[in-house]
Amino acid sequence: MRRARFALVATGLFFSGVPADAQTYDPSYPVCMQIYGPVGYFDCRYTSLEQCRFLAVGRSASCAVNPYFPQKRSKAPRRPKQAD
Fold this sequence. Notes:
Helix content is 27%, strand content 19%. It is of the alpha+beta class. A 3-stranded antiparallel beta sheet has the order 2-1-3, covered by helices on one side. This is DUF3551 domain-containing protein. Keywords: Signal. Residues 1-22 form the signal peptide.
């Protein structure tokens, strides 16, 4: 019992010391530009890949679809009600 508590406390202390990464994508826009360099970051304020690519020309950057942007779900077509 004592070993189990020690193992639980040791595991908790181990994971409390590990730094956590914050979400780097803004869910408000569908496209993000990843800028590379000494301080790399994501710039998520583009409405299309074409817009992002146009602004990435000449920079050390790439464009990607934002994985956190909520996709619009198409409604399933309704089946007509059958008359009895």
